């Protein structure tokens, strides 16, 4: 029971920290005049340990997005050609 409670506290701390980081980053981008570029500036991934991690490096974001897309494609179910769709 205590272990479950500490796990929830850890998740809440991570969420609060992430939201704080996003606010600071948004303010910095605004001050630098980069708020209106309309491009992806951050991707959040789940690490192997189950923690959420924000990625802001362009190449790392591209890599994470490609991996996610590959997983989606691998999970697609392909119907056999002899399947009756009626």
Low-confidence parts: none
Please give the oligomerization state of what you see. single chain
Number of helices: 2
Mean pLDDT: 80
The assigned structural class equals mainly alpha
| Largest β sheet strand count, sense and barrel closure | 2 strands, antiparallel
Compute the number of strand runs.
2
The helix content, as a percent range, equals: 55-70%
* Strand proportion: 5-15%
Whole-number total of structural domains: 2
Radius of gyration: 19 Å
Q: How far is it from the N-terminal to the C-terminal residue, by CA?
A: 51 Å
Coarse shape: flat
Order of strands side by side in the largest beta sheet? 1-2
Write the layout of secondary structure elements.
Layout: H1 2-32, E1 43-46, E2 52-55, H2 58-74
Antiparallel strand pairs: 1-2
């Amino acid at each position: 029971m205590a272990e479950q409670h500490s796990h929830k506290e850890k998740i809440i701390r991570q969420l609060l920290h992430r939201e704080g980081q996003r606010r600071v980053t948004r303010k910095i981008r605004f001050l630098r005049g980069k708020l209106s570029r309309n491009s992806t500036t951050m991707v959040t991934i789940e690490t192997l340990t189950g923690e959420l991690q924000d990625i802001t490096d362009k190449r790392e974001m591209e890599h994470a997005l490609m991996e996610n897309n590959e997983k989606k494609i691998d999970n697609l179910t392909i119907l056999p050609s002899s399947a009756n769709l009626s």
